Amino acid sequence: MIPVSSYIDPAALEHEMELLFxxxxxxxxxxDELANDQDFVCVDLPGTAIVVQNFAGSLRAFRNxxxxxxxxxxxxxxxNRSLIxxxxxxxxxxxxxxxxxxxxxxxxxxxDDERVCLQRFPVExxxxxxFVSMESAPPPLTDYxxxxxxxxxxxxxxxxxxxxxxxxxxxxxxxxxxENVLECYHCGYVHPETFVKGLGIGKKSIVDVRLxxxxxxxxxxxxxxxxxxxxxxxxxxxxxxxFAHESFFHVHIFPNLFISSTEGTAFYVxxxxxxxxxxxxxxxxxxAPGVELDERTQARQDLMNKQGATLGKYVINxxxxxxxxxxxxxxxxxxxxxxGADEVRIEAFAAAYEAAMAG
Length: 359
Known about the structure:
It contains nine helices and 17 strands. Strand 16 and strand 17 (279-289) form a beta hairpin. Helix content is 29%, strand content 29%. The chain has two domains: 25-138, Rieske [2Fe-2S] iron-sulphur domain (Rieske Iron-sulfur Protein, 3-layer Sandwich); 148-357, Naphthalene 1,2-dioxygenase Alpha Subunit, Chain A, domain 1 (Alpha-Beta Complex), CATH 3.90.380. By secondary structure, the chain is an alpha+beta fold. The longest helix is centred in the C-terminal third of the chain and has 36 residues, at 295-330.
């Protein structure tokens, strides 16, 4: 198991940044957010600010720091603007080179001098999932994802439009968020109305567990509920959806990306971004199913999308309240936590984490 100190010690987070987050590939965004020229998404990790931006259809990633006076260039989580520093007007192209150096600047360096260029990071895409590596020559993304390449590709096809995006702050270590979503043993206690009565999820053990390279997936089987007949009528217009299953399907891409499908009628992508040893920003994205609809059924689906995002955030905040008390408990713990037989995905996460931290 992961030592308790790794959840509370700032030095442990520094080691994670060096050995885990600056190695391999890190999820940063969905292609939906970077579809247009000059669209950008920023991800701030402790010690590394990243911006991914669309340059005439090509995705490029850079350290989001102007080399002149070290100002952040893009200052919002996402948006659409040229890569121009707001301090002295340095503007950068898709190679990270300054397009022009404003007059009266007194710099003799050429545009190709690395001292005036942004540090560039490799970018690769799997389906609609955008990844960045802080290594200069990382292995191919397909090698990193392994058996989960076709899973991400299938989910990308099954998901429709992005319907809601948000950031929810947690006063808890990022690993607690990861471990929480890898089991549903807690669902009957934390989500009795939302998951158990509402969705019929949480009464049965997980099935179809898949483990590979720290990544994992499983189905959380559905039990009958009193709302099944009503729900069947509500989703009748989705009968031809590509990804239909009577379960809650969950995927974890190591270390901090979570993807779920509720019977193929709604999709969620969560990204746990460490802020400090005891703080995490969870970026939430909700997607409609990828089904063509007419005007009448689209109106029904729009309402379902809104209700689904509201329910999803309610569940996240139910978890958040518990995880924040777990974080406080960690500070008083004198021994590691226990694992049950149904928590095999947490065990796999811990093994991958320990291997990464061992170098």
